[in-house]
Task: inverse folding
């Protein structure tokens, strides 16, 4: 009987090896291990064996059963692995096809520039003040030291809507309004962003509507050296740590002394190139110490208070920072233009 | 202002300062040099030649064969000009020279005769032809006799000069003349200035015997002076004078006119020369113009004058528009023998107005407008007389006939050292400041704590202490001012609540996929009336619009956003989703008051809202896309509960696909589809728009935000499908359900809308999912069943609706 069992083991293992799928494997299991299977049959004949033989044969029969069972289990795992592999192979996709797009808008570059500058000045202790776009002549001109008949306030240059009201030509009226609101008591630290309007023909470098950011710092003992310090900080944050500023004497009716502020050219790092007209410097803003007359007109005592004021063109900043060559792009709203500022 | 470097060197020693350095000094000092011009960019080999022999070209009638001494050699040169003569000193470009316009000079043969070089005319050397005096056109340059053959001709012609173009700020009219720039440079370089010496002889005859001056309008003409120069010979000016004028952008005419222009450039004082014999009388009378009076001006035009124009007359007829332009008949001509020279001060405002209204801006009018240095008014006439004596052979009659008086200029400004240092943040000492003031040519008196500074008439712009502080600062150098941070009390800067909210709404709209646009505030009259949220009478017009497209202030953002949409559509950019946050303007009752300005949020959408190209998934923009964006915006502001949407017919909008946004009973915005007729008329694709009054979205809810604890008990979900008449609005059904459901209804949402098979004609089915929650305990099934019954009853009685089975 031992021999018979040995034969069955060999046959069974061969059958397991030979089975091609789960179904034939099951047949093998039934054939050898089933209730009516070959091993059971052998065991049925155990009754004829002697008492001494029985344990040996019984043990052998269990060994053979286990051996075949293990073989079946292994083979089953192989079949399952193959099946999974086949299924996963079928599930394969082209990972290089584009993903499902997520809707993305964009911030207008002028808004982006304004917000960036606002944030830098907020960090320097300034707050943001806004005012009307249609202004009284009184605030737009008179209160910033441009009395009637001043050559700088030609009717031809402004959009008047009545004798006394016009589209503001700068955001300085917000400064005058804010000073008056403070009723002679400092400190005043504000920046005023907004749209302004001048009667210019629209072309690549002119726009009848554009954006400005002006700022004002009034307190006791404000010095011109403070103006330099604030702008050195600002320019390094906005344009980069490696940039330097230089001040050049200039003239504005509302400041004295006045200064243009230049920044080292970012294209040539100050070496001189076509963009900076080979000077190494690019003019970025106008500034100066607040004219005592402006303080006085707006209720501040120039003996006690002093301050500085500045103004910059938002379009110019955006054009410099991003290399934009035509101011009209800002107002045409071509989506190919707007999309370029998606990451701002 | 164009400034010649060589001319400047007449007044200041510039032997060791290059033009580039001069430009840098001026720019850093506040007198900006915009650019440098050089006539001769690298021209070499242009020399003086002496024409030794001339003979006609054997083969060409118009050509002359010249033997020219060019220094070391004698070259044969063929010349085409008809004024070439033996003995002349001429300008020769030797072979190898490259003249302006890439003209290469080589040794050639012209019809059998060799020609080694070219005899030049002025325009061949880089002067523009329209700048040349008539006398210099179409002829070769004739150099003075004392020039030496072989020497550098560019130098003699001043062609090696460098011209600086100044960009002057309005406070520095003193730099509108050569002496002013020289004073400035002398202060910047700390070098002495050498002023011209004006000494001419005088003859016994008195000018006063030949002319009288009568000013009838003293306010317009505070001072008028006249000199008489006799026996002049009118001729072309010497070359040096012509080239200096051309360098400054003034075309030479003849020696008399050129001298007045030269002095104008040098002193900043406009002068006018009349022909005494053609003047028509022996009296000068100034007055305002009469109605319809006319004058024929120098440029040959007949001009009708305005009554506020100031005139110089001969007692009868006008001979000049004061400070603006002279008249034709009294003009200096080639046979003029006696010159009547005017030096005057005219009221700046009058000159400005006259030059503007007649469209005549000239070098002279500009200077009158900006105000003269009146200490120079008589001096300039002496300068011109001196030059006329030297150049035209004239004799100067004794005296100047004058009317009015030039006031002595008395302007004193005090400067305090302490205040100066506080204002600048510097620590300058007494000596440093005083030295700078003296360099500027200011008269300084030390009076203890401060200086008394006497201002010269050429610097009338210095009126207050701050002006002097600026003068000191710029000479000390802005670069040397330290860099500090303010020392005053600190304060935290921050955005206001509204500013934060505005940024948030922008970010929200961008997150939906929309792009921010910025458009113009000025629009056409038609567009200003379109797409208004509420009706208003009219838009605000600007007084002097630049074009019809930009004449009225906008009242809606949509028209320009539609323009931008069309711009993109015309460039094959079909998917457009733009929004703008911008001001719109409405009139108030008083037109001299400011209009009401409101911030609006507007948007336009067209094309595909969602497009997943390779698998063909497409969601075109429709009403509900736009509504979703608007609802989201209201949600961002915590206003979703307050806002209601109501169907409304509006001009320009699709009658069945437009809704008003209503808050507290007021229409605060609208959204919907553009009317198909408008869409077609403008060449658009189906386009959807929205516009909201931003105040409704940006105003902050004052209620503080409080956290609500998460529920500890389970919620129960029930679905119900309601069948109702098709014309009942979904919002109405939802509000009936919500009301009937009571306080335990936590959430309700619509998940299906169906019309068609299995539903009675004229009815629709809406399926809702309801979520019930009691925060104190677990809800029982029978409680939910009761609520369900209440809802069914309410639907039936209030809307005649039933449940779908
Ligand atoms: Zn550069």
Result:
């Amino acid at each position: 009987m031992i021999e018979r069992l040995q034969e069955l083991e060999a046959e069974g293992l061969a059958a397991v090896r030979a089975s091609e799928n789960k179904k034939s494997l099951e047949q093998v299991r039934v054939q050898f291990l089933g209730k009516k299977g070959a091993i059971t049959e052998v065991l049925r004949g155990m009754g004829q064996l002697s008492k001494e033989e029985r344990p040996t044969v019984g043990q052998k029969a269990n060994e053979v059963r286990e051996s075949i069972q293990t073989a079946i289990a292994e083979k089953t795992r192989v079949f399952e692995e193959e099946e999974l592999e086949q299924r996963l192979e079928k599930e394969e996709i082209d990972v290089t096809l584009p993903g499902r797009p997520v809707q993305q808008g964009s911030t207008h570059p002028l808004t982006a520039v304004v917000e960036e500058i606002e944030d830098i000045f907020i960090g320097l202790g300034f707050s943001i003040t806004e005012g009307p776009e249609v202004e009284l002549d009184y605030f737009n001109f008179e209160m910033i030291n441009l009395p009637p008949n001043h050559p700088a306030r030609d009717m031809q240059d402004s959009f008047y809507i009545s004798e006394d009201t016009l589209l503001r030509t700068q955001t300085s009226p917000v400064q005058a309004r804010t000073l008056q609101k403070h009723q002679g008591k400092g400190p005043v630290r504000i920046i005023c962003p907004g749209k302004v309007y001048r009667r210019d023909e629209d072309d690549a470098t002119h726009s009848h509507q554009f954006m400005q950011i002006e700022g004002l710092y009034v307190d006791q003992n404000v010095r011109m050296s403070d103006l330099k310090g604030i702008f050195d900080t600002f320019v390094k944050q906005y344009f980069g740590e490696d940039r330097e500023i230089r001040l050049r004497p200039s003239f504005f009716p509302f400041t004295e002394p006045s200064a243009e502020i230049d920044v080292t050219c970012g294209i040539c790092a100050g070496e001189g190139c076509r963009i900076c007209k080979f000077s190494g410097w690019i003019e970025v803003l106008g500034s100066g110490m607040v004219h005592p007359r402006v303080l006085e007109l707006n209720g501040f005592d120039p003996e006690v208070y002093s301050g500085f004021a500045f103004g910059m063109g938002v379009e110019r900043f955006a054009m410099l920072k991003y290399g934009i060559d035509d101011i009209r792009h800002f107002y045409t709203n071509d989506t190919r233009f707007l999309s370029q500022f998606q990451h701002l | 202002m164009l400034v010649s470097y060589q001319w400047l060197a007449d007044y200041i020693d510039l032997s060791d300062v290059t033009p580039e350095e001069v430009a840098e000094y001026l720019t850093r000092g506040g007198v900006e040099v915009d650019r440098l011009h050089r006539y001769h960019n690298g021209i070499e080999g242009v020399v003086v030649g002496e024409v030794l022999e001339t003979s006609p070209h054997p083969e060409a009638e118009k050509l002359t064969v010249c033997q020219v001494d060019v220094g070391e050699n004698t070259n044969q040169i063929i010349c085409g000009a008809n004024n070439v003569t033996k003995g002349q000193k001429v300008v020769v470009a030797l072979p190898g020279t490259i003249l302006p316009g890439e003209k290469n000079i080589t040794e050639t043969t012209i019809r059998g005769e060799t020609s080694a070089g070219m005899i030049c005319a002025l325009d061949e050397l880089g002067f523009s032809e329209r700048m040349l005096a008539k006398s210099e056109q179409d002829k070769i340059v004739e150099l003075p006799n004392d020039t030496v053959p072989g020497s550098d001709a560019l130098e003699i012609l001043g062609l090696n000069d460098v011209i600086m173009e100044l960009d002057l700020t309005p406070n520095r009219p003193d730099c509108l003349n050569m002496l002013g720039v020289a004073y400035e440079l002398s202060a910047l370089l700390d070098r002495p200035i050498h002023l011209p010496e004006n000494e001419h002889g005088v003859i016994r005859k008195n000018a006063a015997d030949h002319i009288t001056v009568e000013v009838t309008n003293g306010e317009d003409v505070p001072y008028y002076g006249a000199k008489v120069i006799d026996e002049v010979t009118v001729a072309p000016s010497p070359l040096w004078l012509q080239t200096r004028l051309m360098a400054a952008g003034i075309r030479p005419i003849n020696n008399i006119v050129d001298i007045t222009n030269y002095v104008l450039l040098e002193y900043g004082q406009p002068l006018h020369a009349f022909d005494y014999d053609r003047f028509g009388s022996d009296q000068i009378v100034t007055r305002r113009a009469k109605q319809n009076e006319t004058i024929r001006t120098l440029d040959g035009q007949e001009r009708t004058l305005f009554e506020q124009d100031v005139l110089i007359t001969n007692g009868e007829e006008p001979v000049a528009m004061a400070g603006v332009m002279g008249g034709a008949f009294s003009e200096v001509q080639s046979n003029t023998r006696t010159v009547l020279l005017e030096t005057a001060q005219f009221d700046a405002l009058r000159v400005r107005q006259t030059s503007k209204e007649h469209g005549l801006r000239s070098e002279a009018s500009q200077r009158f407008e900006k105000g003269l240095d009146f200490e120079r008014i008589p001096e300039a006439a002496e300068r011109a007389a001196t030059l006329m004596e030297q150049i035209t052979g004239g004799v100067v009659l004794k005296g100047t006939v004058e009317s009015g008086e030039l006031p002595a200029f008395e302007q004193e400004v005090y400067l305090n050292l302490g205040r100066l240092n506080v204002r600048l943040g510097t620590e300058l000492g007494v000596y440093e400041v005083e030295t700078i003031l003296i360099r500027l040519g200011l008269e300084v008196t030390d009076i203890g704590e401060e200086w008394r500074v006497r201002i010269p008439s050429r610097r009338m712009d210095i009126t207050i202490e701050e002006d002097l502080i600026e003068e000191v600062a710029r000479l000390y150098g802005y670069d040397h001012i330290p860099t500090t941070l303010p020392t005053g009390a600190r304060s935290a800067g921050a955005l206001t609540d509204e500013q934060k909210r505005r940024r948030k709404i922008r970010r929200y709209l961008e997150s939906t996929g929309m792009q921010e646009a910025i458009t113009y505030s000025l629009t056409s009259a038609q567009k200003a009336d379109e797409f208004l949220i509420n009706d208003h009478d009219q838009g605000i017009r600007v007084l002097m619009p630049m074009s019809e497209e930009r004449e009225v202030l906008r009242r809606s953002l949509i028209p320009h956003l539609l323009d931008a949409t069309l711009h993109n559509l015309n460039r094959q950019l079909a998917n457009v989703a733009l929004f703008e946050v911008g001001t719109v303007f409405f009139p108030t009752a008083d037109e001299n008051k400011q209009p009401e300005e409101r911030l609006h949020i507007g948007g336009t959408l067209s094309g595909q809202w969602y497009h997943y190209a390779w698998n063909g998934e497409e969601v075109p923009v429709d009403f509900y896309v736009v509504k979703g964006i608007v609802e989201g915006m209201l949600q961002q502001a915590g206003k979703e509960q307050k806002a209601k949407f109501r169907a409304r017919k509006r001009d320009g909008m699709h009658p069945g696909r437009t809704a008003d946004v209503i808050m507290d009973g007021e229409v605060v915005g609208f959204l919907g589809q553009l009317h198909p007729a408008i869409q077609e008329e403008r060449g658009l694709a189906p386009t959807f728009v929205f516009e909201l009054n931003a105040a409704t979205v940006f105003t902050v809810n004052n209620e503080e935000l409080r956290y609500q604890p998460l529920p500890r008990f389970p919620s129960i979900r029930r679905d119900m499908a309601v069948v109702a008449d098709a014309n009942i609005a979904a919002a109405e059904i939802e509000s009936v359900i919500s009301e009937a459901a009571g306080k335990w209804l936590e959430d309700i949402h619509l998940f299906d809308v169906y019309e068609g098979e299995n539903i009675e004609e004229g009815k629709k089915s809406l399926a809702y999912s309801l979520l019930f929650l009691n925060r104190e305990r677990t809800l029982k099934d029978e409680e939910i069943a009761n609520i369900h019954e209440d809802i069914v009853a309410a639907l039936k009685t209030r809307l005649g609706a039933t449940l779908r089975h």
